[in-house]
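Researcher: I've got a protein sequence and the SMILES for 2-acetamido-2-deoxy-beta-D-glucopyranose. Could you write out the 3D structure of the bound complex as structure tokens? I'd like something to compare against our soaking experiments later this week.
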Amino acid sequence: MAAASWRNHCRESKLPFCLISRGRIMTFKSYWIVAFLIFTVRLCFADDDHEMEEFLKREYSLSKPYQGVGSLGSSHWELMGDAMVTTEQVRLTPDMQSRQGAVWSRIPCHLKDWEMQVHFKIHGQGKKNLNGDGMAIWYTKERVQKGPVFGNMDNFTGLGVFVDTYPNEEKYIERIFPFVLAMVGNGSISYDHERDGRTTELGGCNAMVRNLKHDTFLFIRYIRRRLTVMIDIDGQHEWRDCLDIPGVRLPQGYYFGASAITGDLSDNHDIISLKLYQLTVLRSSKDEEEEDEITIPSVDNMELIRCQSEEGMSGLAIFFTVLFSMLGCIFLIVIGLVVYSHWNESRRKRFY
Ligand SMILES: *[C@@H]1O[C@H](CO)[C@@H](O)[C@H](O)[C@H]1NC(C)=O
Ligand SMILES: *[C@@H]1O[C@H](CO)[C@@H](O)[C@H](O)[C@H]1NC(C)=O
Ligand SMILES: [Ca+2]
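Model: Sure. Here is the predicted complex with 2-acetamido-2-deoxy-beta-D-glucopyranose in place.
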């Protein structure tokens, strides 16, 4: 299912639609230019299909019946903290207060391009926003460390994709939780728990993933330094864009893992499967050389990315400013009309 649906998604990517909707207000002539562009864009995507193949890598994947997981030495995966294996899932935390647990790969991953498909389930007794704290998927240098970042250490080195189910920062109303968010750490960047990681985020999206009857998935794709996160949570087998960032530099030889934490509020955080696909793509020798040089994780144009998320907030501010000034104007006009009609009436009275 995964490979085919991803490709369909690529073909129906937003770009052509965006051009079409703009085409409507264009002249007839430019319509043909747009049509040509769409055609070219489609060709590009088609080419991408041809050069890309996927292979499931069992050594980096975790799936039923979880043979040997958690037992000493025999499995590719190691359990930590309160994590527990049953026949149905790897439960990172139970729906109880102050727990943390994780599952970590024992084998460093040296693949250049990969895709991690996470089948997960978050459920519990708590009502909305009375549950927490969330879970994370990792590709990091460190492994099997306890800590405050969704059950992993702070100042981690590598990639973390978080499913944050509790809004710690209350004053921002524009963000709906649960919220999926990605962060790249270099060993000295701290995750700001009080601000739900806004200061270090690469981007994210809301995802109503709690207490659902159907299956929920998260996809993390890393290809030619482009990080893409998508979610499939509506039970329709459709993938929704969450974030897509070029210029993400991740070294090879890091470890995959998943972790979760509960505090005063709790949830069951379950991993049903982690499937890692190797993606084979064509790349130039220049690309190869550059990639071999990456030793510390980083993101190109991080300042720009941060500006964009700040802009989002000021966009909201602008909206409210405009809204309130318009309301103010209307109010003044109404007052003006009332005063004018009163003055008119009293003037008429004076004349008669
Ligand atoms: C990590 O990133 C921060 C912020 O971008 C930067 O100030 C710091 O120098 C980086 N540390 C390393 C070891 O690259
Ligand atoms: C993480 O890094 C920051 C800044 O480099 C530092 O102030 C903080 O003490 C570090 N935290 C941990 C737990 O190492
Ligand atoms: Ca949070």
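Model: The chain has a mean pLDDT of 84. DSSP finds five helices and 17 strands in the chain.
Researcher: Great, I'll pass this along to the crystallography team.
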